[in-house]
Each structure stands twice: as C-alpha cells, then as structure tokens.
Amino acid sequence: SDHTLVALGRHEVGRSYDLATGKEVGRLLGDDRPDKAALSRDGKWLLARGKGNKLLLWGVQKPGQPQELYAHASDLENVAISADGRYCASETRGRRLWVFDRMKGDHVARTDVGLRVSDGGLLFTPDGKTLIGGGSGLHHGLVVWDWQEQKEPRGGSPRDMMDWVNKRKESPETCGHQGM
Fold it and tell me: What residues are paired with 76 via a beta bridge?
C-alpha cells in the first residue's frame, strides 16, 4: 500500500503500519529513540534526530536499521525531508542549515542563516529545490534558501517571503508538517 503510518515508541524506535490493512509492516531498529522527526510525503522515509545529534534515516516500507547521514557537532534542532525523500535537511543550534542527498549519503549544501529557524519548523518546497524555515532572531519571520543554486538565504516577513517565492513561480504550498 502507498499509505503508511509510523508510530514512534517509548521503549523502541518505532513501527510502521499499512493503513489499508492495519497490519504491521515492520519495526524500525536501532539504538536510538528518535525525536525531531519528519516523514516524507510519499510515506517511504522517516528522518529523525538520534542520540549524539545523529541524523538518521529509515526506509519505512522495509524497516530495519537506519542509515546514519551525519553526526552533527552541535545540537540538532530541526529536520525536514523532501516530498520524494531524496533530500534531507537539518538545522543545528549554531544556526547552520545542512542539506543531504540520501543516495550519496553525504551533505551537498550548507549555509549559516543567522537565526534559529526551529521555532517555526523547517520544510522543503514540493520540488525540493528550496528550504523554508520559520524562526526568531534576526529576521523574525521566514527564511527562504534556494540551496540548489547555493544562493544566500533570504529573510523577511511571511508576506515578503511568499511574494518572493511566488515570483519565482514556485508553489508556496508545503509538503505537510515536518518536525516535532
């Protein structure tokens, strides 16, 4: 089935279920009990923060051990995953945004943003080319980062940022709530 539910556990990592049948697909394995989690829109990938600020990725439809994408040196504050599950993003307490390509298993972009975006969440636009974060600090609004073009992040009020995104002919709709 294309519809999957992931339940994170108190005493285990979690389990995934097929919503059409209600049957358990499998258990998410590992030594970490994750938090700060995001599920890809297609329901196939779960990205979460594990112990030691590890960025962990599980395949939900074939559960097992996670892929460790990165172990951040500073506190991992927030995570996001693109709609297709290819790109994963994280924000660290040092106010740095990172983007990882799960197929390559390495980071492909990073930038310093000058504010904490975790207050309002972090998400990819539907095409996966841009990260949007809502935060506090320097901009008191939204941060938009066209990470594939390696452009400097832009910050401003939600209206200013949505106008800017719309001018770029991207849909401002999100891929669903990401972050916990």
Answer: 92
